[in-house]
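Whiteboard transcription, Tuesday session. T.W. wrote the structure tokens on the left side:
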């Protein structure tokens, strides 16, 4: 029989990292990694979500990570928002959450 894992339902970190680095993702003009090389600046997202704290994107606050991702796709990357329930969104979110504790933020960042 087939075996399904919770990891699949939660998104694929590897696929998310690929999308994060693709300048054409969501019809955009630059990759997420252009502003966040190796995920810089996103290391605390998982902690903020766990504590139900706001995610702050320049000029705006979000409680839901998918809304923050789409805000960046539309504004920073000049792409089109993706379905918050899509596999692509699950993969991007899984990658962002995987950054927890991966690096120290630079002072003032």
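and on the right, the sequence the group agreed on:
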């Amino acid at each position: 029989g087939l075996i399904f894992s919770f990891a699949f339902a939660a998104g694929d970190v590897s696929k998310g990292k690929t999308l994060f680095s693709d300048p054409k993702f969501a019809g955009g003009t630059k990759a997420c990694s252009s502003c966040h090389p190796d995920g810089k600046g996103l290391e605390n997202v998982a902690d903020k979500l766990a504590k139900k704290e706001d995610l702050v994107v320049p000029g705006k606050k979000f409680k839901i990570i998918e809304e923050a991702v789409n805000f960046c796709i539309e504004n920073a990357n000049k792409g089109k928002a993706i379905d918050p329930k899509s596999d692509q969104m699950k993969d991007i979110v899984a990658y962002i959450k995987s950054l927890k504790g991966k690096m120290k933020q630079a002072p003032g960042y």
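Someone added at the bottom: The helical segments are 6-10, 13-20, 32-35, 45-50, 65-75, 87-98.
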